[in-house]
């Protein structure tokens, strides 16, 4: 996820109904839906609290450590454990400490800015086995963009060595496992999130240009890239851009490549990435999209009607936490967005829990990993309280068929059936250690091309220079 944005505080009414309430234009319907969502929250919370009250602390044995050290880059996982792990006790005197039974939980949070979080991990994990008992890292968190760096090293444990079986994780989506498998196929982490994503469209713009905001008919207008680009031309005639920026579509293309960035020690620009360049250049030249950086003030103007943007691409967290649903006059606040698959299935975001090699708390680490990623009571509580799209096929199927999980931001549409279907289609078998650097540098270089500051060959040369400096062990194709 873009974790830095998850700190946005939404109003209480909006928070309880982001994905758990019925989005209707009728005040009475919304009120009824909010009440239903509140009841659902209370019921789920009661279940979790009952579990916490009745679950004895994990029996870790006398030979295991008394301090559980967890390394994170922000508060997200910490808040999930504090709110949902049965038996967790906060330390009133220190927000970065807690208790599970007789084990002290120590949270160390190092922000990702300037690569500080990864630099910290790179410094401490290789020496973890030799660290003193109270200083050993037991759990650390990873994002997909750099997960392979740690998965393909000795600093992460195979989850099977913790006693986690294939049956335990049978309800998880395959792509969430592929991301954290090493080159030998060993699974090195688990995620409670399934961040499948889609095309989030402006319903008013769809009615204006396409004559309908019905999701099935809108999907026909964006069903593949050629059709998407034809629709972009129609949108321009009515004063809309199809997206806010060419960068909006990049992740969709890059999630659907035929091979990894680096093959046989050489960087290879995949045909689907080249198609993104060609399609985006045409859209920019035609004035049908911009070149804004994601998260910039200009980029998010389309969250409001006057921005005249037809669509954004993203998962549930983008809809719920980033599209300014708490701001009067925003499209989200008015229930004015819709959700479809778009030209290609993709995902964006997610956090993976890894067991650090050298942990002296393997029993507790296993229990935390399983509870937070496989316990359906805990996962449903996370859905209701935190609006995460969770990594459990059976639960998402249940939510998809539950009318109380319609989204007010999406005009009453229930997104779960589409999110579940999308997660089944995501293929991350081509992920590599080099994805973060290659994706960032390629987009940066191509922006110069899109804006007419250089030709394609010049942009590619800029990319090659940046990559060879960043990764001296590889060469360019």
Shape: globular
Mean pLDDT: 89
Please tally the β strands and state the result: 14
Which stretches of 5+ consecutive residues score pLDDT under 50?
1-56
Number of helices: 18
Residue share in helix: 40-55%
Distance between the termini: 31 Å
Strand order of the largest sheet: 2-3-4-1-5-13
Output the structural class: alpha/beta
- The radius of gyration is 23 Å
Percent strand: 5-15%
Oligomer: single chain
Biggest β-sheet strands, sense, barrel: 6 strands, mixed
Describe it.
The protein is built from 18 helices and 14 strands. By secondary structure, it is α/β, with parallel strands linked by helices. Strands 2-3-4-1-5-13 form a 6-stranded mixed beta sheet, with helices on both faces. Helix 2 crosses helix 14 (376-386). It has helices spanning 12-17, 27-54, 76-84, 116-124, 144-151, 174-178, 203-210, 215-221, 225-237, 247-254, 271-285, 316-321, 362-374, 376-386, 393-400, 416-425, 435-450, 456-470; strands at 67-72, 88-90, 97-100, 103-109, 137-142, 196-202, 241-243, 262-263, 266-267, 309-315, 337-340, 346-347, 352-355, 475-476. It is 41% helix and 12% strand.
């Amino acid at each position: 996820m873009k974790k830095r944005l998850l700190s946005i505080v939404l109003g209480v009414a909006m928070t309880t109904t982001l994905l758990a309430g019925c989005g209707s234009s009728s005040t009475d319907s919304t009120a009824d839906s909010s009440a239903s969502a509140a009841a659902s929250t209370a019921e789920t919370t009661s279940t979790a609290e009952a579990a916490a009250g009745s679950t004895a602390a994990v029996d870790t044995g006398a030979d295991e450590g008394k301090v559980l050290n967890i390394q994170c880059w922000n508060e997200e996982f910490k808040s999930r454990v504090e709110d949902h792990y049965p038996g967790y006790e906060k330390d009133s005197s220190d927000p970065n400490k807690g208790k599970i039974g007789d084990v002290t939980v120590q949270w160390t949070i190092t922000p990702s800015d300037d690569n500080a979080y990864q630099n910290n991990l790179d410094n401490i994990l290789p020496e973890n086995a030799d660290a003193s008992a109270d200083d050993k890292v037991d759990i650390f968190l990873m994002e997909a963009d750099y997960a392979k760096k740690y998965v393909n090293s000795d600093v992460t444990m195979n989850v099977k060595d913790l006693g986690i079986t294939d049956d335990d994780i049978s309800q998880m989506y395959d792509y969430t496992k592929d991301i954290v498998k090493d080159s030998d196929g060993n699974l090195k982490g688990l995620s409670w999130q399934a961040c499948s994503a889609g095309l989030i469209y402006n319903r008013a713009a769809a009615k204006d240009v396409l004559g309908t905001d019905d999701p099935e008919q809108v999907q026909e207008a964006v069903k593949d890239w050629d059709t998407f680009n034809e629709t972009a031309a129609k949108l321009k005639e009515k004063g809309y851009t199809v997206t806010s920026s060419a960068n909006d579509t990049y992740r969709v293309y890059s999630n659907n490549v035929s091979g990894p960035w680096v093959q046989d020690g050489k960087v290879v620009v995949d045909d689907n990435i080249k198609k993104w360049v060609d399609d985006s250049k045409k859209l920019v030249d035609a004035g049908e999209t911009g070149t804004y950086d994601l998260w910039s003030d200009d980029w998010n103007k389309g969250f409001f009607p006057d921005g005249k943007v037809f669509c954004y691409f993203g998962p549930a967290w983008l809809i719920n936490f980033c599209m300014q649903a708490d701001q009067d006059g925003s499209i989200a606040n008015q229930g004015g967005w819709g959700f479809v698959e778009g030209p290609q299935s993709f995902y964006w975001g997610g956090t993976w829990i890894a067991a650090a090699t050298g942990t002296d708390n393997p029993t507790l680490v296993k229990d935390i990993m399983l509870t937070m990623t496989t316990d359906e009571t805990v996962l449903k509580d996370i859905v209701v309280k935190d609006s995460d799209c969770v990594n459990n096929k059976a639960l998402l199927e249940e939510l998809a068929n539950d009318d109380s999980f319609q989204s007010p931001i999406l005009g009453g549409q229930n997104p779960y059936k589409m999110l579940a279907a999308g997660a089944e289609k995501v293929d991350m078998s081509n992920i590599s250690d080099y994805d973060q650097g290659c994706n960032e540098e390629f987009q940066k270089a191509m922006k110069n091309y899109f804006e007419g500051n250089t030709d394609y060959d010049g942009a590619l040369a800029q990319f090659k220079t940046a990559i060879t400096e960043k990764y001296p062990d590889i060469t360019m194709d």
